[in-house]
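check this:
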Amino acid sequence: MEQITDVNQIKNAVLYKIAEYTYEGTLEEKYEHIPYEITDPIEPTFRCCVYREREILRQRVRLAMGRLPSELHYRKTDNTQIVHVMLAACEGCPIDRITVTNNCQNCLAKRCMKACRFDAIIHTPNGAYIDKTKCKNCGACAKACPYNAIVDIERPCIKACPVGAVDMDEHDLAKIDEDKCINCGQCVSKCPFGAIGAASMMTNVINSILHNPEHTYAMIAPSIEGQFGTATIPQLKKAIIDLGFKDCYEVALGGDAVAWSEAEELIENIKNGNKMTTSCCPAFYNMIMKHYPEVKDKMSTTGSPMIASAKAIRAKDPLAEVVFIGPCIAKKNEVVARYLGEISAAMTLDELAAMFAVKKIDPESYDGGEQLATRYGKGFARSGGVSAAVMKVVEEKGSELKPKVKVCNGAAECKIALQMLKLGRLNEDIIEGMACEGGCVNGPMRRYDLIDSKKVFDKNVNVDNTEIINTCKENGYGELNIHVHRRG
């Protein structure tokens, strides 16, 4: 399997150096030298000159150390904002949104000209021409053209954002409206210049491993499977422990606990004539809180599988430093905005890969072993998996109810369903919301192409243990209180 983009090579080179120097204990002495170590002293390799390359790398180094990319950052920010623009890396993407292509046939109907209300289209011997001083980017001409010769092109970062949080400043550089941003990370993965990144907590994690190894624990999302070759959850757990963690837990077990709790909530809500939404996806949670606050009282009060797993670890070790690992950027925001004190950090898979690389650890080389969670808990990683697990618990509890589920695969479908809920026109009893199309297996920080990684995940998802309630009790999740009171 090949990595997705060449941008990743730059990012991974920085992460490797940060991890290496943090493990050495020399990061504060050496971090300023990293841009010079990675770039050629004379010949640029990925931008116009070595000086710009070094500034881009300097800003990426700062993000990898958990800092703002620039000391002179122009935006207001608080410590819960995870996604940031590296201004030196932004190309400004000088795209004219409404553009005439070579498909223009210079036809006689001139429907594009007739459709334009601003007299912005002129016909020349070579075809239609758009006067940019008059064009309002309304797109009427593109809709009118019978040859589809006029196209509407958006900047990748703006197009990727599902909630309209990305815009351009007066210099045509990307900017993020933090009041709208749900920290889903789609702009991070879609920017072809790697100009948008997420603040890292990796240095804090490595320092915890070095200075508090007896109480530092990892917990891995089920969507990690398929992201390190063919390595399974048991193999990955052993590899992660060899990084210096005291132990490694399956977040899928937290998924089983969440399914049990949300099923109880669902049964109660249906009996009371109420609708509800799931709460495991942090970007979906942020979407509700920032863009649909009218329905936040409908959200499940059950915490996410991450917090359920953290509570289980801390029940055994009250001094635990707990670290979540998965392909999700929004999990970092969930930690710093809601759960600091219970969870110490969240890391993405590229950060974990950098730590493996520094320690020369290959997860595929480890022996396999037993998986503790059910296939339903692991299924939380896929769209439709949360509701499937909840329905399984409803069945296990012997309820005669047949709840109707609205599965939202991706942010666009989430917005439609939440609008219907807001207007009181939702027919279903429960909304399963996942901001990433396909679910967490398609998270913005996945390491490999979805088709390839999903083959490995699908092959290993069907474990023998399928009784959710019994599995929770057997693994110490039965007595946990994982509710987070939001209603009212």
Observations:
- The chain has three domains: 7-90+163-199, 98-152, 203-474.
- The longest helix spans residues 251-271.
